[in-house]
Here is the input.
Amino acid sequence: MLDPATEEVIATVPGATAQDVDAAVVRAAAAQARWAALAPADRARLLRRFATAVDEHVEELARLEVREAGHVVGNARWEAGNVRDLLDYAAGGVERLSGRQIPVPGGLDVTFLEPLGVVGVIAPWNFPMPIAAWGAAPALAAGNAVILKPAETTPLTALRLAELALEAGLPEHLFQVLPGAGDIAGEALVDHPGVAKIVFTGSTRVGKRIMARGAALVKRVTLELGGKSPNIVFADADVDAAALAAPMSFLDNSGQDCCARTRILVQRQVYDRFLEVLAPAVESVVVGDPSDEKTQMGPLISEAQLERVRSYVTGDLNTIRGSAPDGPGFWFPPTVVTDTDASAPVAREEVFGPVAVVLPFDDEADAVRLANDTEYGLSGSIWTRDVGRALRVSRAVAAGNLSVNSHSSVRYWTPFGGYKQSGLGRELGPDALTAFTETKNVFISTEA
Ligand code: NAD
Here is the structure.
């Protein structure tokens, strides 16, 4: 593992083999049977203890994330806290995971929400802790065992979370972490008949592959994939507020965020004013040492990601650019491309770096057309003072997570997921546990 801010080696972690996955599934299945047999209140209590253990180690986990992923320290603390909150929230669902009683003639009809068994969670490197917990916390709460495969570049916080689970009293082998390569450990989980469901967050390319491979076993999948989200600014909005908020909507986590608002669509009559306010806001973003409390943006995760981002911003494009440190580390400055058209790769593909484009539009219909002109549909923002327009456009944009006059999209207690090629299924929110159950219907005759 490399520190992306300095390129120093900070750890080496051996990768799991397919045999390691086999052995882990056997252990997980045994642990799951015991876990599902516990009283709901006991499972809930153990998950709350796990949440408390995470809470007591927020600073340690955050510092580990700064080192291995280059996240700015304030964000990293939020991420560790998010794991704690998810565990607490999921624990609250254990005793509430009830089926239904449905009226039928001649008897009683009831449904049971039964755990799936062993769930595989395959996580990406961009938010290693929260995304691991989005899958693991509700899966455990619903009575499953979890095998988590973190991304190749970011296994350290996941390994630490597994230790904290044990210290908190979770049964051995109920929550296992298997670091390893996607095409070895990841595929072994996908192909394993003992793994009932895969929760995958990552690229659309790998998500499609997992769905195709999983089809051989009719494997359950939740997919959280890429995005190219619009930020739509209407002329009737508080344009200055929209311009000031725009930079961090695509620069947070150095743009390595599936919800990044990287297509800024601005109504033509306020386009110049928007850029006038946006330019100094982008230029003044503080980029540098992620462990410094004042830093707003750190490095990219790796050399490969840096090369990928560079390839989209060719020399002939007009840009607004911020600053970035020289020297070691995978640095790229905040960048807004101002003179491209909607068909250019930088305007269509997920760059996954600190790069956005600004495009003008004429009216509401044009804004909706541009916003939906993408294979993705994860999130988006709408800036307007007209409440009717806010609702019309929210309903018209084909995306799973929209915000009006703000850029928020992820709360652990509201549902999250993508339309179109941004994903399949939903995570988080009040129904999160249900995604880790099978519904069983039982009819009991009263006439026998
Ligand atoms: P990736 O798809 O390369 O890897 C994600 C995970 O899948 C890693 O753990 C990797 O080891 C594993 N993997 C790779 N190949 C595999 C295979 N053949 N079988 C099984 N597992 C395999 O993605 P990444 O580069 O780590 O993450 C960036 C991508 O994730 C971006 O496209 C981003 O938009 C997306 N993302 C989506 C969300 C969301 O919620 N929708 C959240 C975060 C990131």
Summary: The mean pLDDT is 97. The pocket of nicotinamide-adenine-dinucleotide is lined by residues 122-127, 131, 149, 151-152, 182-183, 186-187, 190, 201-203, 206, 209-210, 224-227, 258, 350, 352, 378, 418, 422-423 (CB under 6 Å). The longest strand covers residues 107-115. The chain has 14 helices and 16 strands.
